[in-house]
Amino acid sequence: MTKYNGIYPVVRKENSFSAKEYPVVKFLPGLDVLFVREQGGVYEYLRDKDLPSDADGLLMYQASLQNLSEIIDYSIVHTPYGGFAIFSDDEFEASALLFKQIWTMCAEKLADDLLVLVPANNTVLFIPKNGQGLLQDMLDHGKSVYDLSAQKISLQLYVFSREKEVLESYEEEY
Question: In this structure, is residue 48 part of a structural domain?
């Protein structure tokens, strides 16, 4: 048992929590990683003051990913417009972004780069990059989720490069 047991990473909108009070990891443009722990069936955000004095940010991040992988199963489902969505526990869908193996597997199966949208903590959408005809439908779906969500994240597109095996901002016009 380590000092990081029971700590899990969550992806949130950039700057939605003060880095002066919470351990925040900058992930991608527009996205931060924060940490939660379960207390009596409820997840609460860790504050800096809750961490052990000898806490190591990198070790905590790595341990939190391992912890999450042990409690969450992600499922990939088809959307009505021909794209894909990732499902898990409501708190952790967006955290799927942190698992390179998920994106590598999907890119390999689709034989393409992936365009990814994370409008809310409980919604991750993606399409093959060459499926540009699906893009507007995915953006519309994402916008409706974003507008209705209490835990908004981003309407920014990201791309997972099959060749580089990296998730990054999608800068092309769309």
Answer: yes
**Per the domain annotation, does 2 fall within a domain?**
no
Q: Name residues whose C-beta falls within 8 Å of residue 81's C-beta, 6 or more positions apart in sequence.
A: 134, 137, 138, 141
Q: Helices then strands (H, E): number in the chain?
A: 3, 10
Residues 100 and 164 in one domain: yes
> Based on the structure, what is the number of domains in the chain?
2
Here the tokens at position 42 are 């409820």
Same domain, 30 and 109: no
Distance from C-alpha of 49 to C-alpha of 23, rounded to nearest angstrom: 10
Q: 127 with 112: CB under 8 angstroms?
A: no
Note the pLDDT tens digit of each residue in 84-135: 999 996 689 999 999 999 999 999 999 999 999 999 999 999 999 998 799 9
Residues 62 and 80 in one domain: no
The pLDDT score that the predictor gives to residue 67 is 94
List the domain range (segments joined by +) for residue 51: 7-71
Half-sphere exposure of 51 (CA within 13 A, CB side): 20
Over residues 42-69, the pLDDT tens digits come to 899 999 998 878 888 889 999 999 999 9
